[in-house]
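Me: I'm a chemist; would you kindly supply a protein sequence with its structure tokens?

Assistant:
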Amino acid sequence: MSKPKVMIRGIYTTALTRFLAERGYVIAQPSAATAERFNLNKVHERNVTIVDRPDKQGVTVEGEADPAESVVLVLLNALPDMIVRELMLPDFLEEQESGKFSLQTGFLSFDVEFPYGSKIFLDSVRSQVTATINNHHLLKIVDPETVDTYETLLRSEPKRNEDLSSLAQKRLIHERLTVGRNLQIHHVKPDGSIIRLSEARILSFKGRTLSLQRRIVGDGSKYDGIDVAKTSTDYVVTLAEEGSPTLKHSYYAEDGVLKGEFYNINTPIEFYPEKIRYIDLEIDVVRRPGEQPKIIDSDKLDEAVEHGYMSGALAEVAKDIARNLASKLAGT
């Protein structure tokens, strides 16, 4: 199979162009800026298209089956925490000489998500081509014009990368995470569904860690993995460290008595002005007061790999994190 001819558009264009071109992929129909940046010839044919998802948390890869799958696999093997979901395409109908229509198959579409680690990887790739502040792709989602401004400064003062990156992160995100504000928690499942946990109030933001408080809706059910009943007067304190692969929930009764702890294993937590976001990696660690911690739901993680949502390597990383955390909590 000849190398795919790939057209790329969106905030990941420079990084993906560099990444794929280095591996022999043909960059088709480049924008004027991309053609100039990479000194590309105008290749008009394409059999794969890569465009931003509407939320810009990744891309859609679409095209002829073999080349589209090739692009997805080369990304999956390189990016540390990429999530991929194959999308269902409607059947294509083509009119035959007889006047009848026949089904045309052989096209695939993939929803590709770039969590924190993948964004950092692509930041690094982009920085080999042009001035790139830290957390470029994450901040591009928040405010692309301001990122462009900081990178214009960086081009003229390349030694100020850390300084300008810190200023951009502070201005666009950290300064907005003020005590008393409410934040959303986007708990994204491997299949792409988003569970929006109850709104969280910021108790503190120190270093890179948010302390959040949420109310629990008591419906007679029990907390996952802890086997303790929820009541309408319970509350939960959530500790979220930016870039951490774990999220800690501590559940309390109204009188402040701890009911249990739940440690979610996830892709590194991303902070945004109005929310925190991560991909749930299914496996978790739980602990009830006075008891040893235990690992739960590793089978769900295995199922996510079987469905093709993530690489086996990412699943093993998640299992290692869970084992190490359980051992630490147990004091061994």
Q: What stands out?
A: The chain is about 30% helix and 30% strand.
